[in-house]
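Entry type: protein chain
Record version: 2
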Amino acid sequence: MFQFDSLSEFIQMGGHGTYVWVSYLITLLVLVWLVVSPLHRKRKLMQDVIRQQCREAARQKNADIVQNTFQG
């Protein structure tokens, strides 16, 4: 059932093990990046939106204070 006689032969894969395992590693890294990258971008975008909303609220508050000062 198992093509290789030992674990060492399985890892070496008839002299092609280096290419096979490097290919698996690169594929795994790309898949992890495809999952992590959008999550990181979403978190950064949410932080930017919250920061912008805080600035807008502060500007509105300052505008209200200035308007009340000139009206009073």
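Comment: Residues 37-72 form one domain.
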